[in-house]
Amino acid sequence: MKAMEAIGRVGERSPATERFSRAPWTDFARTHVGALCGAFFFILLPLLGPFLIVEYLFGIYHPHPITVDGTYFPDGGFLFDLHVLWKAGHNIATGHAPYPFVYPAPAAIFMVPFGALPWKVAVVAFALVLIGAAILTLRILGVRDWRCYAVALGALPGTSAVTLGAFSWLLALCAAAAWRYRDRRIVVALAIASAVVSKLFLWPLVIWLVATRRFRTATTTVVLGIVLVFGCWAMIGFDGMLDYPHHLGNVAGLEQARSYSPLALMRSVGMSSATARAALFLLTVVAIAAIIVVARRPDGDRRAFVWSVGAALLLSPIVWVHYLVLLYVVIALYRPRLSIAWMIPLLYWFLPGQDSHRSTAAILSAYAITALAFGATWYRRRGPATAPALSPR
Fold first, then answer.
1. Chain-centroid distance, C-alpha 4
2. What is the pTM of this model?
3. Confidence class for position 150, pLDDT limits 50, 70, 90
4. Which of 44, 95, 137, 187 is the most buried (most CB within 10 A)?
């Protein structure tokens, strides 16, 4: 009997044996690799944009100058949009005409306070405004997980919006405010009208209002948009107003084939300009119909809003990578805490940059990443229902 007990004890693991069998080095590696990955994704990447701006301000970072459409940019692609925007605001602040200018008059008027500042001071001020807009965008959509803020700012769209000095985070804030306060007519109208008169491609948000039977809000939005456009142009003596459509068409003709838009994709595979535009028109009709149909189904308000954001990106003749910060508005509506959907846009770093170089593979890669992020956002495991979208206060 004692022999049998001894044999049984031989088969048992002592505490020391148990510790060795767990291979402590694997726990050590797992812990430290996780910490390194967390530091990279949630600290280093989000700080990349501000770090580059600080280097630039102190003369450490020296971008290569370029010339685009006859205009000399001393800092190349770095702060490219801000150079254009600041110059327009500076011209108005100093009593000169802002045009030719790629944006409508409301954008030029918005930039006057920044244009009145010295260039480097304006760089700091505008960067802070953009980062603040990014934080506020997620905040008003109910996101409280700090890691979500970090990856949104650390992905290529979020970082490049800051290092280019683009409006994209402000547009995302307008879209988020339109959803968050969707039953407050004036707030929604002001948010959407401000976005559309600054960047025309967000016009499908008006279709969302119509599809969800917010007819008074849609009418107010259109009227307010018209008032903003003509009022701001009147402030600068209607300078450049008549020539603006022609100028915008010239800019689009030069740049749209290098972006990530469906039009750029069609041109990259050899489709003629006329055929590509006809296809884009048909796509527009289908997108509008889809928004209206989705609005009639369960959870139609939120789904129609998401489809309108997607349609804005899909139908724009020009889509740069920084436009894709709007994707985080969609993710925040469904995933208020960190999930794989928040991490997938980090894959945009594998793209060649803002310029697709007319590469079909690059454009399709951007679409694949976007589709993957949308899929991860909408995927639901069987189980308890998740919390509904935010209702207006």
1. 70
2. 0.87
3. very high
4. 137
Which of 286, 265, 266 is closest to 276 using CA atoms? 266
**Mean per-residue pLDDT of the chain:** 86
What is the distance between the alpha carbons of residues 349 and 366, in angstroms, rounded to a whole number?
10
Closest listed residue to residue 165, CA positions, set 214, 115, 203, 207: 115
Q: Strand runs (DSSP E) across 64-129, as ranges?
A: 66-68, 71-73
197, 260, 385 from 281: Cα distances, Å: 21, 17, 38
Instruction: Report the C-alpha gap between 165 and 171 in whole angstroms.
Output: 13
Distance CA 24, CA 224 (A): 65
Q: Which of 261, 273, 267 minimizes the C-alpha distance to 318? A: 261
Residue labelled with tokens 């995302």: 172
- Report the SS3 class of residue 145: coil
CA neighbor of 130 nearest in space, from 88, 102, 159, 103: 159
Question: Which two tokens mark 263?
Answer: 């039009």
What integer pLDDT is reported at residue 220 of this predicted model? 96
Q: What are the tens digits of pLDDT across the range 206-226?
A: 999 999 999 999 999 999 999
- Residues of the chain above pLDDT 70, percent: 87
Nearest CA-CA partner of 209 in 191, 197, 226:
191
Listed in sequence order, the residues at least 6 apart from 83 whose beta carbon sits closer than 8 Å to its beta carbon are 73, 75, 165
Distance, in Å, from the CA atom of 251 to the CA atom of 189, rounded to the nearest integer, reads 29
Cis peptide before 65 (omega within 30 of 0): no
Torsion angles phi and psi, residue 101, rounded to 5: -150, 140
Question: Strand, helix or coil at 68?
Answer: strand
Q: What is the pLDDT of residue 197?
A: 94
Quick check: 308 and 329 in contact, CB under 8 A?
no
> Closest Cα to residue 323, out of 81, 161, 178, 174?
161
Burial state string for 212-244 with b = 16 or more CB within 10 A and e = fewer than 16:
bebeebbebbbebbeebbeebbeebeebbbeeb
